[in-house]
Amino acid sequence: MRCQPVVELTSGNTRTGLSIVCAIKGHPFIAVISRGNSIERAPMMLALGAEVVLVDQMPGSVPGQVSGPDLALVEQKAKEIEMERGAFRADQFTRDGNWMAHHDGTGAELWQQTDGHIDGFVNFVGPRGTYAGVTKKLESLKPSVKCFIVEPVGAAVLAKEQVTQAEHPIQGGGYVMPDLVYLKDVPVDGYLQVTGDQAREGARLLATSLVVSPVAPT
Prior knowledge:
Elements: E1 6-9, H1 13-25, E2 29-34, H2 41-47, E3 51-55, H3 68-85, E4 88-89, H4 96-113, E5 120-124, H5 129-141, E6 146-152, E7 190-194, H6 196-209
Parallel strand pairs: 1-2, 1-4, 2-3, 5-6, 6-7
Helix pairs in contact: 4-5
Pfam family, one: PALP
Protein name: Tryptophan synthase beta chain-like PALP domain-containing protein
Organism: Fusarium kuroshium
C-alpha cells in the first residue's frame, strides 16, 4: 500500500530531517523551495530521496536571496500540492512538533553534552521553533541562562527595527514575518544582527578550523 505523501516548504534543516524520516517510513516527500535558494540545495534533497519542486521568485527579486514575497509563493505552491495529492503538510511554522522536538531533543542534548555548564544560547531564527524549544528547556533547567535571537542586518523585525533590506543573502531566516507563533511567552534576553558578509566569514571559519580527532573504539 502506498503511504501518504508529505509536503513542506523547506530549504534548511527541516528538509534533511523530513527526507530521512520519510525515506525510512516509506512516505514520498515533496520539498517545495524557491529558485532563490542556493543551487546546491536541490541536489542534496534529491540525493536523500525527496522530490523537489522549484518555485520561481517574484519579479524583481534578487537571485540567491529569498524574500518574504518569494516565500509566500512557495507557501502557495505547497498548499496546492497538499490539496492535489492529499499530502500531509508538515507545516514547520505552526505545528507544536517543531518546538517540542527542540525542547525534548536539541535542548536536552545541549544540556547533557555540556554537563549543565551552559550560560547562553544564540540562534539565528527561521520559523523560530529551535529558539523556542531550546530556550524553554534550558531555562527550565537553569533560569540564569541567557538566550539571544540573531537576525539579518536590515531585516530585524523581532528587534522591532525598521526593515531596510527585506532581501538579504542569509538563507533560512530573516523572513520579515513578525507574527509566527512559537515566540509567544518565550523570553528573549537580547537581539543581535549579522550581515551577509559576516555570516559567510563565520561559515568559512568553521569549515576550515573544526578538527575532528579519531576516537579509539572501546
